[in-house]
Design a protein that fits this description.
The protein has 360 residues and is mainly α. The chain has helices at 66-81, 90-101, 124-142, 193-197, 205-222, 227-231, 248-261, 283-301, 314-317; strands at residues 2-3, 10-11, 24-25, 39-41, 54-56, 106-107, 320-324, 330-334, 346-348. The chain has one domain (2-12, 24-357): di-copper center containing domain from catechol oxidase. It has nine helices and nine strands. The longest helix is centred in the middle third of the chain and has 19 residues, at 124-142. Bound molecules: CU-O-CU linkage. CU-O-CU linkage binds next to helix 2 and helix 7.
Length: 360
């Protein structure tokens, strides 16, 4: 878990990232005058008429829901106009990624200078589940809509593979993307830094779509039979960053999709192609709702019901993170609270899973 009082500047370079450049940056939040923020323990939401289940729909299906799009755009524009230091501002929301993924906090308890980083380990899924959970609730709060739900980028379905059109317009667009990868190009889930360096040319859409489905089958089913393979390795206190063993989904489609969206002509492949800037692109949140959905689907496919954890290990279950909630309170969330998605008050609209039939 992170030690909040250790926030420090970081390097944008993590591990052996493929970028042409890197720099130092500071993404720490402003502290209250007392120097010590007040921390509350997370409470699961209680669904009621006043706060109904939020249903996340495929982003390529909401394109015709003008009312929904107007709300989502409005919420994002309010977020972007908040003072940059406000915990609900677009700026602070995106900096969360830099803090937890570039290692701005040190680990609590461990030798004081070991950074706390959530990528490439069993913290990957729970951390990002909470990240989009709070982002969604804050957006809803800003427009007074307790049922507001983020969409998900349904890139595991052929029709959903291009960057969703709604993310190429208005408040949801981001200029810093790879111009060759705008719709209708299907995402290349198999892209790697080596391929980018070699200047590879993507195959035609039909071939790419088939490659994507086969790789999803492998990363969700055949190559992900055990939690260690799917969730990532068990990060122990004192271990510096990665425990070397990313889960199947974190490798692809997660990392590959970041690399595919980011602009590889920019020094650090901004925005999506680099950790410090990824969450500045609104499509980041739709990418991560889908990653979150893939976690929920994996649990269903592999027999993990309700709150049965993938690892019955207090080290994992009691690991915690800090987020500002929709009331701008700083809350401590534990991994154990992330496991049963149903208790978090949101759901995913069901769609076909064509990759289930894509056994190579
Ligand atoms: Cu923390 Cu998509 O990454």
């Amino acid at each position: 878990s992170p030690n909040l009082s250790t926030c420090h500047s970081v390097s944008s370079q993590i591990g052996d990232t493929p970028h042409k450049a890197f720099h130092e940056l500071n993404c720490c939040p402003a502290l209250p005058d007392s120097g010590k923020p007040i921390i509350k323990d997370f409470q699961l939401p209680t669904p009621s008429a006043a706060s109904p289940i939020r249903v996340r729909r495929p982003a390529h299906h909401v394109a015709r829901d003008k009312e929904y799009l107007a709300k989502y755009n409005k919420a994002v524009s309010i977020m972007k106009r908040l003072p940059p230091d406000h915990p609900h501002s677009w700026h602070r929301q995106s900096q969360i990624h830099c803090i937890y993924c570039n290692g701005a906090y040190n680990q609590a308890g461990a030798a004081s200078d070991v950074p706390f980083m959530i990528h490439e380990s069993w913290l990957f899924f729970p951390f990002h589940r909470f990240y989009v959970y709070f982002h969604e609730r804050i957006l809803g709060k800003l427009i007074g809509d307790d049922a507001f739900a983020l969409p998900y980028w349904n890139y595991d379905s052929p029709d959903g593979m291009p960057i969703p059109d709604i993310y190429t317009e208005g408040q949801l667009n981001d200029e810093k993307r790879n111009a060759r990868h705008l719709p209708p190009a299907p995402v290349a889930i198999d892209i790697t830094p080596e391929k980018v360096d070699a200047g590879y040319v993507e195959p035609d859409a039909a071939e790419q779509t088939a490659t994507n489905l086969a790789l999803l089958y492998q990363h969700m089913v055949s190559g992900a039979s055990k939690p260690e393979l799917f969730m990532g390795c068990k990060l122990r206190p004192g271990e510096d960053g990665a425990c070397s063993g990313m889960g199947t989904i974190e490798t692809a489609p997660h990392n590959s999709l970041h690399l595919w969206v980011g602009n590889t002509d920019l020094p650090e492949y901004e925005d999506m192609g680099t950790i410090y800037a990824a969450a500045r692109d609104p499509v980041f949140y739709a990418h991560h709702t889908n990653i979150d959905r893939l976690w929920a689907l994996w649990r269903r496919l592999h027999g993990y019901r309700g709150s049965r954890p993938e690892f019955d290990d207090p080290l994992w279950l009691d690991s915690h993170f800090y987020f500002y909630d929709e009331n701008a309170d700083l809350v401590r969330v534990r991994v154990r609270d992330a496991i049963d998605m149903d208790r978090l008050g949101y759901a995913y609209e069901e769609v076909d899973l064509p990759w289930l039939d894509a056994r190579p």
